[in-house]
Amino acid sequence: MPHALPADPATVHAAAAHAVTVLAAEPAGTEAVDPSGPVAQLIIAAIIGIVVIIALITWLKVHPFIALTIGALGVGIGAGLAPDKAVTSFGNGFGATMTSVGILVGLGSMFGKMLVDSGAADRVVDTLVRRSSKAALPWTMALIGALIGLPMFFEVGLVLLIPIIVLVAKRSSVPIMKIAVPALVGLSTMHAFVPPHPGPLVAISTVGANLGTTLAFGIVLAIPVIVLAGPVFARFAARWVDIPAPDMFGSRGSDAGPVGDDPAHAGREARRGPATQDTASLPHGKSDFTRVISEPCSPSFTVALVGILLPVVLMLAQAIREATVPDASGSWVSLLDFLGSPMIAIGIAAVYAMIFFAIGGGMDRSAVSKSLESALPPVAGVLLIVGAGGGFKQVLIDTGIGGVIADAVKDSGISVLLVAWVVSALVRVATGSATVATVTAAGIMAPIAHDLSSPMTSLLVLAIGAGSVFLSHVNDAGFWLVKGYLNTTVGQTFKTWTMLECLISVFGLAGVMLAGVFIH
Questions:
Q1: What pLDDT is recorded for position 511?
Q2: Residue 471: left if φ>0, alpha if ψ -120 to 50, beta else—which one?
Q3: pLDDT tens digit string along 358-394?
Q4: Around 308, how many Cα atoms within 13 Å sit in the side-chain half-sphere?
Q5: What span, in angstroms and rounded, lies between the C-alpha atoms of 164 and 249?
Q6: Which of 123-132, 178-187, 305-314, 335-344 has the lowest mean pLDDT?
Q7: Which of helix, strand or coil describes residue 374?
Q8: DSSP 109-143
Q9: Is residue 246 within 8 Å of residue 258, measured between CB atoms?
């Protein structure tokens, strides 16, 4: 869908038709725009605006939504737009971004909540862990992190993974960093590179990338990144930080753990059944891995896995069709394009979860309704941030600042992908927020993307995503969550969590740059 609201009904109709296969069409406003002031004024306004946004978030602790709104309006007025036109420009960008991203984030959040509350996530994790040997555990945990991270927001996935990490480390006698690092890498990599996470979605919408192509590239890029920053790096992390698993969880979902922090607890309680014993074989048939299961109602592994992969398969199928037979026509093409459109694919997954996860998890209609309702409040802040980022982007375009930036990058001879990564990484280090880094960098790079091919635009999104996770430190909530859960010192958290985030970012950039050599 377009980034700024089109001016006439015909344009609206055309854009709506094209949005079946492309999440965001070429950004409106990226055609020649008359600058609202002299070039020096535009550049100064942009620099001051970005500095103000960063200062408000980091120094005054203002919510990013308010900071982005103030910064965007300040840039518009400072660059020469009339105040009312600055407000209109911001509103157009906000509305266009919410139209293209808001529905997907809402549906994705509902699917993730059903995955947790029905027990489907537990089923996937337990099945994969039980079938792993001790040597294969780090690789299994990386796969678990990636699968859990595919449909879930980072914070929810982290809360779900931490008890699993701790219990597996204790029961297998494997150093906790060999378990924790791969799982966290899988989760964080998916969050940075793969839709339907808010960061990649808003970047796709802002720069006009094809969602299916970006999804395919993101998954291909994620595999080597997860391997190198996960199981491979975990060997070194376990030597650098040799600590015991924290004694903070009794059994997953029991009263021994931090129930208030467990998003699956309410769903588990709603479907609790008669207790049965279950002896797992991880690893080497350890007899102490016998536990009492008081929640036998869970979707099967196959049902859970189909639900997780369903939207990915639908969107990839449409992207493959578009890449291989772009001129094909007929009812099967229309059907494939319909099912592969982002809103429909994720919507189908949400409906699938409501039916099959609920049936397998023993949830009644009331429990399903409660689960879906509770999925939305946590993402309200995220939606406002990405919407404000879209408004900021549109102001940059309407003032002509975007064109100035685009011309400067083109004339410099520096790779557009490298510039995107640097901008995103700088905002990430300054604000501590991957989402703010993504929406800010995407807004700055949007005019440049207008002249790129579709595959290069997708790589631009991935470069922005890679930069958005660089150097997590003390201004990042994720830093303190990991430190608190794993009971590490600040120094140990830098050696593990911060290092793995840097590796994800750098390896991601390397992969994007390598792909850019072959794709133009």
A1: 95
A2: left
A3: 888 888 888 889 988 888 887 788 788 878 877 887 8
A4: 25
A5: 9
A6: 123-132
A7: helix
A8: HHHHHHHHHTTHHHHHHHHHHHT--TTTHHHHHHH
A9: no
Q: Could you read off the pLDDT of 169-196 as tens digits, one per residue?
A: 877 778 889 999 999 999 899 888 887 6
Q: Determine the Cα–Cα distance for residues 81 and 59; give it in Å rounded to an integer.
A: 28
Residue 293 phi/psi, 5-degree rounding, is -100, 120
Say how far apart CA 257 and CA 367 lie, in whole Å.
22
Cα-based distances in Å from 196 to 145, 205, 354, 469, 487: 16, 12, 18, 17, 31
Q: Which residue intervals of 278-341 are DSSP H helices?
A: 301-324, 331-340
Q: Distance (Å, rounded) from C-alpha 106 to C-alpha 245?
A: 35
Q: Are 167 and 180 in contact (CB under 8 A)?
A: no
pLDDT, greater one: 49 or 409: 49
Q: Which residue has tokens 């949830």?
A: 363
Residue given tokens 């607890």 in the structure block: 265
Question: 460 pLDDT exceeds 90?
Answer: yes
In the three-class reduction of DSSP (H, G, I as helix; E, B as strand; rest coil), residue 291 is classed as strand
User: What pLDDT is attached to residue 197?
Assistant: 73
Q: Determine the 3-state secondary structure of 471 from DSSP.
A: coil
| pLDDT tens-place string over residues 117-168 | 888 877 877 787 778 888 888 998 898 888 877 776 676 677 667 767 877 7
Please, what is the Cα angle at 457 between 455 and 462, to 5 degrees? 95
Residue 363 and residue 116 in contact, taking contact as beta carbons nearer than 8 Å: no
CA separation for the pair 437, 72 (Å, rounded): 15
In contact, 388 and 97? CB cutoff 8 Å: no
Please give the structure tokens belonging to residue 138.
């780090």
Separation between Cα atoms, residue 98 and residue 389, nearest integer Å: 10
| Type of residue numbered 430 | A
CA distance 170 to 370: 34
The end-to-end CA distance of the chain, in Å, is 23
Q: Identify whether the C-beta of residue 431 lies closer than 8 Å to the C-beta of residue 58.
A: yes
CA gap 281, 33 in Å, rounded: 65
What is the number of other CB atoms lying within 10 angstroms of the CB of residue 249? 21
- Length reported for the chain: 520
Tell me which amino acid residue 218 is: G
* Dihedral over Cα of 253, 142, 472, 500: its sign: positive
DSSP assignment of 344-363, as one string? HHHHHHHHHIIIIIHHHHT-
Span 236-256, mean pLDDT?
Answer: 67
CB-based contact 71:49 (threshold 8 Å): yes
d(CA 342, CA 195): 9
CB atoms within 10 A of CB 170: 18
Query: Token match 């204790």: residue?
Result: 170
